[in-house]
């Protein structure tokens, strides 16, 4: 399960959700032990608390660039 507080700079939240689901993952709304990756993007103030919770639970978090690198590694290329 992925978590995205805020939005990516070049994609709406809805587009992100569709992309994630298209590739077999789910988008969550809160950090839990079921969260595989926290994507930290934008300037949403909620992200500070989510990062702290992710660290507490040992959930890996990446910035927007790290997300795209992870996506390309797993899926072969970045969508256009």
If you had to describe this structure to a student in words, what would you say it looks like?
It is a single chain. This protein has a 4-stranded parallel sheet. It has a single domain (2-75), classed as BRCT domain (Rossmann fold, 3-Layer(aba) Sandwich), CATH 3.40.50. The protein has 3 helices and 4 strands. With 80 residues, it is an alpha/beta fold.
The 3D shape can be described as: globular
Q: Kindly, what is the distance between the CA atoms of the first and last residues, rounded to a whole number of angstroms?
A: 23 Å
By secondary-structure content and strand pairing, the structural class works out as alpha/beta
Cα-based radius of gyration, to the nearest Å: 12 Å
How many domains? The number is 1
Q: What's the quick description here?
A:
Helix content is 42%, strand content 15%.
């Amino acid at each position: 399960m992925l978590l995205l507080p805020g939005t990516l700079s070049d994609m709406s939240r809805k587009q992100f959700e569709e992309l994630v689901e298209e590739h077999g993952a789910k988008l969550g709304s809160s950090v839990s032990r079921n969260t595989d990756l926290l994507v930290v993007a934008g300037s949403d103030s909620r992200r500070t608390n989510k990062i702290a919770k992710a660290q507490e639970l040992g959930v890996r978090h990446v910035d927007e660039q790290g997300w795209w690198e992870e996506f390309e590694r797993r899926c072969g290329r970045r969508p256009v």
